[in-house]
Design a protein that fits this description.
The chain has 11 helices and 22 strands. Helix content is 49%, strand content 18%. Strands 6-7-4-9 form a 4-stranded mixed β-sheet. It has a 4-stranded mixed β-sheet with strand order 13-14-11-16, covered by helices on one side. A 4-stranded mixed β-sheet has the order 19-20-17-22. It is elongated and about 155 Å long. InterPro entries: CDC48_domain_2-like_sf (IPR029067). One of its GO terms (molecular function) is ATP binding. Keywords: ATP-binding, Coiled coil, Nucleotide-binding.
Length: 564
């Protein structure tokens, strides 16, 4: 199977796996939304019934006028003044109906307010779930994109490696062509032998049975290589050198006018041709070792008076010349065409040669030379903070690093929040002036500040995975298979209470840490716990900033604040 077919099959399998993951996630998300909506509906109905039973006043509170009219009605009825009693009753009924409607409207309004507050709480709960699902869906999308980029990068690396190998072999074949020797049709191999030719080499096959003796018995065959491949290549190389030296020999013979002088010049011409061939071979092999640049980002150095639309026109002659001469290009290389000054901001891969299929990017603001840059030296559980002061960090790491990178032809380019690996230590760019932009040039005139990272170290931290994200088809070790690889890849990451992260499909949450109330980092003395699981309840699934605001909407708070 070829590389292209294997790559296409890998892409198909990759798409099938991630499509299934997306379908499972969507099904799980729909199920969570349906379960939450059903529970909200039931809780809303139960809460509404509870409000109608318990909201005060449960019965109307009649006014003094209505009570007096009822007493007058009873008194007139006892005195057998039925006409006057009837008039009083009609007047009292009207007043009672009016007061009953007022009581009902006020009670319904209070119930509506409390119901609206309850529904708002449910909306916040549903919104938190949707936000959590959106974040998980985005995390799944980023994971798929990252896996796809890694898969494509592996394919590109393999393809580039094969192209480089084929290019080297092709160059060798072009320089030292291998031709099959002429075969005399009249010649026949001796009895008991047969011969065949492949790739310019002659192979002889001799019957192991020894000719006629032992006829009828099928013996083994002994393959004997008449001429080794390397020897044959050397012979072809010597032949090519003789052909290259022949014009020099003829010229020498014509100048001297004698056969002797021509014979003396032959070794010198052969040596000169051999030296030239060796030089050409070395140069070609050296340039072929460098990969082709896929993408190159070039920006002018501030101050620049050229318009963005003119940049490529200004750079084209120089880039064409560099491509023809196979001049290596790397990040930080100065380009100075026609009185302008440009710099290579990024070259992918770094230290490569320009090719016909190289993509050039020239968009962006001119690059400024930073006046001040601040670095911090990071530490983690593999490298703890030493007793070195900031002056030692500058003299032993920062200063030699940038002095080595800066010259008249090459400079160093850094961006804010970028991490640099310098002699086994991790440094991060915290701030720079002037900004914007966030990327610029650090040269020998830049004022550099450096200090240690002051992020505290946790003494204890507890990570707990979500139960529904754990694999069910195979056995696993939650620490060695998931937590330890994630922490090893993210050594400088800081954590805080309720932080969440996902690694290889398993979601973790920080449920406890010491000291509390501040962000910290895992160091050599940190004790890590990972016992237990978290069930996907709404409170656990909500983002870290949501549980605290929801506590003010608890039912007991409503009853105490909205009571009679």
């Amino acid at each position: 199977m070829g590389v292209e077919e294997a790559h296409m099959l890998g892409l198909q399998e990759f798409s099938n796996i991630w499509d299934q993951k997306q379908q499972d996630f969507d099904a799980r998300a729909n199920q969570l939304q349906k379960v939450l909506a059903t529970r909200h509906k039931q809780e809303h109905q139960a809460h509404l019934e509870k409000l109608r039973r318990e909201v005060e006043p449960r019965t109307p509170r009649w006014s003094r006028d209505l009570l007096n009219l009822r007493k007058i009605q009873e008194t007139l009825a006892k005195m057998r003044k039925y006409a006057e009693a009837e008039k009083t009753k009609v007047q009292a009924d009207k007043l009672e109906a009016r007061e009953h409607n007022q009581w009902k409207e006020k009670r319904e309004a209070r119930i509506a307010v409390m119901e609206e507050q309850f529904l708002h709480k449910q909306q916040l709960e549903m919104g938190g779930l949707l936000k959590r699902l959106k974040a998980s869906r985005e995390e799944l999308r980023r994971s798929r994109k990252a896996e796809m980029e890694r898969l494509l990068q592996r394919y590109q690396n393999l393809k580039m490696q094969m192209e480089n190998q084929q290019r080297i072999i092709q160059q060798r074949v072009e320089r030292y062509p291998i031709t099959a020797p002429m075969i005399n049709n009249s010649s026949r191999p001796p009895s008991g032998h047969s011969s065949f030719h492949s790739r310019g080499m002659c192979f002889s096959v001799r019957d192991a049975s020894g000719g006629g003796a032992g006829a009828g018995q099928r013996g083994a065959f002994l393959f004997r290589v008449v001429q080794d491949m390397e020897d044959y290549r050397e012979a072809q190389r010597a032949k090519w050198l003789r052909q290259a030296a022949k014009p020099a020999e003829d010229s020498a013979v014509g100048a001297e006018g004698s056969q002797t002088s021509g014979a003396e010049a032959r070794p010198e011409a052969a040596e000169a041709a051999a030296a030239a061939a060796a030089k050409n071979e070395t140069g070609s092999a050296g340039s072929s070792l460098k990969p082709n640049a896929r993408r190159v980002h070039i920006l002018p150095v501030f101050p620049s008076s050229c318009d963005q639309s003119q940049r490529l026109e200004i750079l084209s002659p120089l880039l064409r010349s560099m491509r023809n001469s196979q001049t290596p290009v790397k990040t930080g290389l100065f380009l100075r065409p026609a009185g302008y000054e440009f710099v290579v901001v990024k070259c992918e891969p770094d230290d490569a040669i320009l090719a016909m299929n190289t993509d050039y990017f020239i968009e962006g603001s001119p690059l400024k030379r930073f006046e001040k840059v601040q670095f911090i030296c990071l530490w983690d559980f593999e490298r703890t903070r030493t007793d070195q002061d900031a002056t030692a960090l500058f003299q032993e790491y920062i200063n030699p690093y940038f002095k080595r990178l800066n010259s008249n032809e090459v400079t160093s380019i850094v961006s804010v929040n970028e991490q640099l690996q310098i002699n086994g230590m991790e440094f991060q760019v915290m701030a720079a002036e002037p900004v914007p932009p966030e990327i610029g040039i650090v040269d020998l005139s830049t004022v550099v500040f450096v200090d240690w990272d002051n992020t505290p170290e946790f003494s204890k931290i507890h990570f707990v995975p979500f139960q529904d994200t754990l694999p069910a088809a195979y056995e696993y070790d939650i620490f060695n298979d998931y937590l330890k690889p994630y922490l090893t890849r993210n050594k400088q990451q800081s954590f805080a209470m309720n932080d969440q992260f996902t690694f290889q499909g398993v979601q973790f949450k920080v449920v406890c840490c010491e000291p509390r109330g501040e962000r910290g980092r895992i160091g050599k003395n940190t004790t890590i716990y990972c016992e237990g699981v978290l069930h996907p309840s709404l409170r656990n699934l909500l983002p870290p900033e949501m549980p605290l605001p929801l506590t003010v909407f608890m039912p007991c708070t409503f009853q105490s604040s909205l009571g009679p």
